[in-house]
Amino acid sequence: MNAPELSLLDLGLAALIVVATAGFVRPLSKRSANGLLVGMARMSLQLALIGLVLKALFENVTPYWVLLVSLVMLLAAGREVMARQHYRRHTLAEWRNGLFAMAAGSFSLTLLALLVMIDHDPWYHPRFAIPFLGMMLGNTMTAIALTISRILEGAHQQRAILEERLALGERWQDAASTIRRDGIRQGLIPVINMMAASGIVSLPGMMTGQLLAGADPVNAVSYQILIILLIAGGTTTGILVASRLTLKQLFDERHRLRLDRFREEKEQ
Amino acid sequence: MQSPMLELNTVQTDIISSKHLAAASGERVLLSGPSGSGKSYFLRILADLVPWQGAISLNGKPASAIPGPEWRQRVMLVPSASHWWQPLVEDHFTHPSDAPLEALGLDRGILKKDPQYLSSGERQRLALLRALDRKPAVLLLDEPSANLDPERTGQMETLLNDWCKKTPGLLVMTSHDPAQRTRMADRLWQIRGGQVIDTGEHA
Question: Is residue A1 predicted with pLDDT exceeding 60?
């Protein structure tokens, strides 16, 4: 049994709702309203494009194309993480840290899933590799962006306390322990909430998709549990790496707080 | 002068600079200059909390040869407004029972209090004790008696004088009170046009 096809009118109606809500948000925050509209346009275009890319990949299964698409996805995720920050450095190191944290969190566990758990032949088949990586990247990206932003904002808000702890001879690792803890906690909230709500409040996206496509519910559940566990492991890894790398940028080798390296992105 | 404890040679930042400055242990240095001239900033340079260029040494050892945290444990800054991050005052001390609270007119019960409910004067005195608790060699004090009445100020000066002699430590402090300058200065450093100089005046 396949899901009934959606017409452009159906999608247009859904888009209209987003446009209307953006209209309500606009007087409160122009930036957020624009974000909603730009996000909607980008999402539609990107999904349409990935549909075409996947079609081409399925017709011509080679590891090189899969690798190339994966790298493009990773770079895009890295850009997203930085674009969401209120305090920026605009350096290569900043970009590299986001990418490294995300790769550590999502690439490693996606490989593990493809090679060990799913064990399809060939293991790099885009039908598994791309959706798995996409889900891993999407979730680690959100978590890492939250962690980095909480740490950078925490350091700016608690500047005086940080400096006083450093003045008393603490190493940056000790002086910033509270800020790091808050950042990790913030980044883990979505994945912890997702696990708590799964199956009771919400039916996760991948499982919903499989059910709509007519898959066996038990198999759909197994896949969903696998992907959530991988997401939990991947986001936690990514957050730990990202928090460490972000804090290292806040301090120099003499353990001085270096907020002068960052610039505040102003809301228009 | 005996061999200097703290010595600066052509220290420079965007805002402030100094040629040669030196002070020995047991000395009390008073740093003066109009508001906004960079006194607090200069203390932050000495504590190595902001980037600077040049040479600063402690007992002949250059700052670059000593890790930042270790330097700040020895050359310790007490800012004009203190901050507290633990639930109780005593949590900020390594040896709370050894703190000479009575010398500054404080009750021992204050150790069990939440710092955010204390007065600015109490916090200022506790901030000094918190720094002494870590046994620094050089104390950098930014307006240490700004929130204190004359009696408390006298107590604090006595404590600082004792610390200077007995440790023997080096004290570098700022003050807006001309009388305090006369009472407390063995040596005067002055900021003029972005440059810190030793005026050569001694009390």
Answer: no
CA distance B91 to chain A (A): 13
Q: Rounded distance, CA A22 to CA A154, Å?
A: 29
Residues of B in contact with A160 (CB under 8 A): 81, 83
Position A46, amino acid: Q
Do B49 and A163 meet the contact criterion of CB atoms below 8 Å apart? yes
Smallest Cα distance from A167 to chain B, Å = 6
From chain B, pick out residues whose CB is under 8 angstroms from the CB of A178.
Answer: 85
Closest Cα in chain B to A256: B49
pLDDT of residue A201: 83
Over 90: is that where the pLDDT of B132 sits? yes
Given an 8 Å threshold on Cβ–Cβ distance, is A168 in contact with B70? no
ipTM of model: 0.94
| Chain B residues near residue A257 by CB distance under 8 angstroms | 49
Sign of CA dihedral A158, B50, A264, A85: negative
Mutate to test the interface with A, among B40, B44, B80, B83 (most CBs of A within 10 A): B83
A178 vs B: CB within 8 A: yes
What is the mean predicted confidence (pLDDT) over A223-248? Answer: 94
Q: Average pLDDT, stretch B157-173?
A: 95
CATH of B6-198, one of 3.10.129.10, 3.30.360.20, 3.40.50.300, 3.90.180.10: 3.40.50.300
Confidence band for A2, pLDDT divided at 50, 70 and 90: low
Give chain A's mean pLDDT: 91
Phi-psi region of B60 (alpha: psi -120 to 50; beta: other; left: phi over 0): left
Is-contact A173 A267, C-beta < 8 A? no
The 10s digit of each residue's pLDDT in A38-90 is 999 999 999 999 899 999 999 989 999 999 999 999 999 988 898 888 999 88
B69 contacts: CB under 8 Å, gap ≥ 6: A166, A169, A170, A171, A255
Q: Match 């050894």 to its residue by tokens.
A: B98
A180 and chain B: CB distance < 8 Å anywhere? no
pLDDT score at A18: 96
DSSP state of A29: -
B72 close contact with A: CB closer than 8 A: yes
Q: What is the pTM of this model?
A: 0.87
- Nearest by CB to residue B72, choosing from A160, A169, A178, is A169
